[in-house]
Amino acid sequence: MPVELFYGILFFVAFFYAAVGHGGASGYLALMALYGVAPEEMKPTALMLNLFVSLTSFIQYYRGGYFLKKLFILIAAASVPLAFIGGMITVEENMYKRILGILLLFPVLRFFFFRNVEDSALKDHNLVIAVFTGGIIGFLSGMIGIGGGIILSPVLLLLQWTNQKQTAAISAAFIFVNSLAGLGGMLTQGISFTGNMLMYIAVAFTGGLLGAYFGAKRFNQNVLKYILAVVLLMASYKLLFTKA
After folding, report:
1. Residue 163, Cβ neighbours under 10 Å: how many?
2. 118 to each of 88, 108, 161, 162, how far by Cα in Å?
């Protein structure tokens, strides 16, 4: 894959993910896996990009008044320490790709099958379920190198705790704190970024900034979700069933 094409895809991955309230780690990981980046570089690189893109996305949705602080605190309280622990764990390369391939199916399911929840149908959150869910997702996030928003979002919508834009706001904040915690865990074991890290950040940050603005203020998100779902489904298939 020509390097220009790689950066072009990276830009659009950040753009589309930020538009729906995600940091994009699952997309970055899929792209890097297809490009042949080593797993020990993929994880920290994806989390670093997550920090920049999820923060821009969160700011836009927060300004729109969609952030539910109390629910976020409950979920993040367990996720952050377990994301740190997960970041300390090294997974064998083939197993890593298989787990990543499975996790990529979560946003596919969300984008294809989970529609927006009307405010009249929203339910009160359950403290125990919120904390337990946050802990499990946090651990997986740190171990694989994702922020966890791709797993959290369909769970929130399935439980009918948040509508689509509230989900995006909470997911963006969740991704940021988990990515930071996961990087912290990785630092204790030694960390290795790709040599093109600064360029990755510049491209992803630009795409994320534009995507967050248009997603929070202008876009009908259905088309974006379907495009992302198809791309991630293809990446998941390659990771699970081929020697990616």
Report:
1. 17
2. 40, 21, 10, 9
CB atoms within 10 A of CB 70: 8
**What residues have CB less than 8 Å from 205, skipping those under 6 apart?**
14, 52, 53, 56
Structure confidence at residue 115 (pLDDT) = 66
Q: Would the pTM count as exceeding 0.85?
A: no
Dist. CA 4–CA 16, nearest whole Å: 19
User: d(Cα 80, Cα 94) in Å, to the nearest integer?
Assistant: 26
Nearest to 201 by CA among 19, 24, 20: 24
Query: pLDDT digit string (tens) for 94-129?
Result: 887 788 788 778 777 766 776 666 777 788 999 999
Show the domain range for 67: 3-241
Rounded Cα–Cα distance for residues 215 and 186 (Å): 31
Cβ atoms within 10 Å, residue 3? 10
Number of domains, the chain: 1
* Spatial CA neighbour of 46 closest among 232, 194, 168: 194
**Helix (H) or strand (E) run with residue 3 in it:** helix 3-19
Tokens at residue 159, please? 């439980």
Instruction: Report the alpha-carbon distance of residue 25 to residue 111 in Å, rounded.
Output: 16
Q: Is the pLDDT of residue 221 over 60?
A: no
- Cβ proximity of 236 and 31 under 8 Å: no
Burial of 34 (0-12, 13-18, 19+ CB in 10 A): middle
